[in-house]
Design brief:
The complex is a heterodimer of chains A (148) and B (113). By secondary structure, chain A is an alpha+beta fold. Helix content of chain A is 30%, strand content 26%. In chain A, β4 and β5 form a beta hairpin. By secondary structure, chain B is of the alpha/beta class. The chains are: A alpha+beta (148), B alpha/beta (113). At the A-B interface, α2 and α3 of A face α2 of B.
Chain lengths: 148, 113
Amino acid sequence: MTERAAPETYSISLSVASGLEFVELAETVTATLARLAGFDEETAMWISMAVREAVINAIKHGNREDRQKRVEIQYAFDHDGLSIRVTDQGSGFDLSQVPNPLDPENLLKPTGRGIFYMKAFMDEVDIRSAPGEGTTVRLRKKIRPRSA
Amino acid sequence: MIRIEHRTIGDVHLLDIEGRLTIGEGTAGFREAIHRVIQLGGRRLVLNLAGVTHMDSSGIGELVSAYTTMSHLGGRVKLLHVPPRIREVLTITKLATVFETFDDEAAAIGSFQ
């Protein structure tokens, strides 16, 4: 078995129209890049699921499936991990108004778990949203050193 | 891609689900299968998740909808053969406290008695 060489710093961009059929594409690209960055298959799967949630939110809630609007997905990976930025062209939202899906009164609601999903599977999640400026979600996953 | 097989054992309906329970084709197929069980009068439902490979937040939402819809009709939903990945999702979303889960089909069916 050969040791994977430490990756150099890369920056890759993907731009898709606001159609849910592009969610799978973003997921596949993310999983591939996560593997290239050095994550194991299981971690790469969870990273791709987190990005999937960000892209779904951008398409559905940000751009409201307006196909004239785009979702930009930018990847940067270095020796420490993988960073992903998902940006929509929507009208933004107030993060403080997003209910906690773990509260007893929300536990049996069918929606509202997307941001929670991202936070569960990534090391860092930063969401910037302003009225009229759309929303940018920054996700980061660090590569854990292999145990000896 | 999702594939759902519908079986009945006595008055217990079982859905054997394979593939991705994710937004789009996956959640639509799942919703349709639940609707069919309800239309047939099924009120005791076992969801066999052994073949489920991925579940996003929309998939979780569909599981919750199946649970609440069936509860409102006086029925019950139980989970069978929950893969580790999906078990992890149920745990972090606290839904593991809501769903009764089984690793044995006969035990799941017998639990309705």
